[in-house]
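Continuing the series of single-chain predictions for the mutant panel. This is the parent chain; the variants come on the following pages.
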Amino acid sequence: MRTAEPYRIKMVEPLTMSTRAEREQALVKAGYNTFLLPSSICYIDLLTDSGTSAMSDRQWSAMMMGDEAYAGARSFDHLEQAVQETYGFPYVVPTHQGRGAEHLISRILITPGQYVPGNMYFTTTRAHQELAGATFVDVVIDEAHDPAVEHPFKGNVDINKLEKLIGEVGADKIAYINVAVTVNMAGGQPVSMENLRQVRELCDEHGIIMWSDATRLAENAFFIQEREPGYADTSCADIVLEMMSHFDGLTMSGKKDALVNIGGFLAMRSEEILTKARELVVLFEGMPTYGGLAGRDLEAMAVGLREAVDDHYLANRIGQVRHLGHQLVDAGVPIVQPVGGHAVFLDARAFLPHLDQEELPAQALAAELFAHSGVRAMERGIVSAGRNPDGTNRHPALELVRLTIPRRVYTDRHMDVVADSVIELWEERDAIRGLRFVYEPPTLRFFTSRFEPID
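Parent structure:
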């Protein structure tokens, strides 16, 4: 029997379709960077799942109960209790969003000259680690770098790579290991529970802190339930608790799996880290009980944390991503497989083999998709990877366009339109030209860089 969305719609926001001429004009004005496009001209906006979720009636109701006291607000108590119940960490420090938490933990745990291994980089995470004086080292399994390989847990840490790094630099030179669940840049790929156990054992052996980028941990729990032996009858909520039991702490962007439009936090077991985080949060974010957020934001996040680990919600959430991905696979469009938890990733290398990576194929494909149909996506390739210390471009193995699906926002009919748009573009792919930089900032260049077509 078919199933439907586990919710019904109470409010709608009208969408309008622009003309191709209008979209081409907007692209030129935005320097062919989809981040610089106005949202009003985007027909279906798949730029990101960050802060774009539709909140529930319970979340909206909770916002009305927000305690806006500057210090000691009861809304913080509600968030702290939700984190303790859903993730199992005793201590919480709220931040304005996930990168605020990344900034704090990087300053707390990193001594300049240390290394931070991780299961593939993420843009803002690595930027904060490098600004704190660390060197990022990729220790994800090799399968994560091949979009065509079918592997149930492509986000797993390669234990041999991690052991090799420890042997080469020494455990005291490793600030901590950062394990993302799921791995965004690999295509939203999960990490297995068994792999988390192995990493924990190695960290205990060498006295290394094990931290998590837990932004999409609920989606990771769904994949464990579906794919890992012994978890089929375990609720996603219980799997989340077990996953987090292996970590010393986490950074969280509440704008994803907490189903809110703004917010994040650090959670930890160590009182020493808690004390340092509370000292720094006052300087950079706000009081330790609000961290740059209004009380109503804390209330909405507390409710969202619980809603996000519901089995029915997660089955529908990931089912919608697969609904889009499977249509593209059936049409022969190259994507990252298996389909991940929050997005479908187009393989721009295979989509545009006539373009060299220095011609920015993923950026060009994202721009052309918008011009073609009004669907806004984003680049995850050479532009996002940034530059090496010597000024040359980093060349990641994955050159991707991310079709990121907001939570509880679009219907499967919207996904059908996206699929049709991508398939039509696939049939016209030989006509797509590359791009080159005309402006590039020194840090996180994919947000504000500007480009122009290569003649």
